[in-house]
Amino acid sequence: MPTKGERASEKKFVKTPGGRVTIHFFKGKAGKHHCALCACELHGVPHGQRTSGVRKLAKTKRRPNVPFGGTLCSNCRETVFVEAAKVKHGLKEIGAVSLKEKGFVEMALNRVE
Questions:
Q1: DSSP states along 10-68
Q2: Quick one: pLDDT at residue 49?
Q3: Contacting residues for 79 by C-beta, under 8 A, at least 6 apart
Q4: On the CB side of 110, how many CA atoms lie within 13 Å of its CA?
Q5: What is the end-to-end Cα distance of the chain in Å, rounded?
Q6: CA separation (Å) from 92 to 88, 101, 104?
Q7: Which UniProt keywords apply (predicted)?
Q8: In the prediction, which pLDDT does 47 show?
Q9: How far apart, in whole angstroms, are the C-alpha atoms of residue 109 and residue 59?
Q10: 111 membership: H or E segment, kind and range
Q11: Phi-psi region of 68 (alpha: psi -120 to 50; beta: other; left: phi over 0)
Q12: How many Å apart are CA 16 and CA 84, to the nearest integer?
């Protein structure tokens, strides 16, 4: 018997070697990933495959190999590092950074030397 979560998933009727017909349930396909700050579509992140297919890819093929890759778009990533540099050099207080960016700026401060 399928669980409640499986009822809505994709079904495929498969004929087994014994002659019986069984139902195989599949999880949905991976949707497009979005930026955590501006919600625009992320490039370089695979989608359109089943989640198991994405999970089998190499780590470098699942997301870009840059800081905050797969989480932030390039524009937001640039603004976060600019804000982190301003905080690091004393041009801006950490409290003056917007709340949406504050967590990412704090993580970026560890990378800015």
A1: EEEEEE-TTS-EEEEEE--B----B-TTT-PBPSSS--SSBHHHHHTS-HHHHS-SSTT
A2: 83
A3: 101
A4: 6
A5: 57
A6: 8, 14, 15
A7: Ribonucleoprotein, Ribosomal protein
A8: 86
A9: 25
A10: helix 99-111
A11: left
A12: 59
pLDDT bracket for residue 113 (50, 70, 90):
low
Q: Give tens-digit pLDDT for 60-110.
A: 888 888 999 999 999 999 999 999 999 999 999 999 999 999 999 999 998
For the chain, the structural domain boundaries read 1-27, 31-111
Distance CA 18, CA 75 (A): 57
* 45, two tokens: 């992140």
Each residue's pLDDT tens digit, 17-75 = 999 999 888 777 878 999 999 999 999 888 888 878 888 889 888 888 899 999 999 99
What is the amino acid identity at position 10?
Answer: E
